[in-house]
Amino acid sequence: HRHLLGIRELSPADIELLLDRAEKAVAISRQSEKKMSTLRGRTQINLFYEASTRTQSSFELAGKRLGADVMNMSVASSSVKKGETLIDTAMTLNAMRPDILIIRHSSAGAAALLAQKVGCSVVNAGDGAHEHPTQALLDALTIRRARGTIAGLTVAICGDVLHSRVARSNIILLNALGARVRVVAPSTLFPAGIRHMGVEVFNSMSEGLKGVDVVMMLRLQRERMEGAMVPSVREYFRYFGLDAEKLKLAREGALVMHPGPMNRGVEIASEIADGPQSVIQEQVEMGVAVRMAVMEALLDPRRNEDRAA
Ligand code: CP
Question: What job does the chain carry out (predicted)?
Answer without folding.
Answer: Reversibly catalyzes the transfer of the carbamoyl group from carbamoyl phosphate (CP) to the N(epsilon) atom of ornithine (ORN) to produce L-citrulline.
